[in-house]
Amino acid sequence: MSQPRCAVVTGGASGIGRATVERLLGAGWAVVIADVNADTGAAVLKAFGTDAPVDFIRTDVGSEGDIAAAVARATERFGRLDCMINNAGIGGAFGPVTDIE
Asked: Fewest 10 Å CB contacts: which of 2, 12, 52, 75?
């Protein structure tokens, strides 16, 4: 049996990133969640359960070493890396656009 395609999703522990992880898992992909928030990442990993082909690594996308470690995690754990989804970001102003100066 061949290995499933594998993606690394930065910012994958919440919001759009988490939704992307869910979509990829639903399509049969293996996924490495790369997120700066270790607590949220661990909780998301636990929520997917031990049967899902998913892993988590704490990753600060501003650190080249952290990105290299995320890529290494994918290839070590799942044997390949087919896609990088660069989703991570830090939000600025929050709230309705009409309330932001």
From this structure: 2
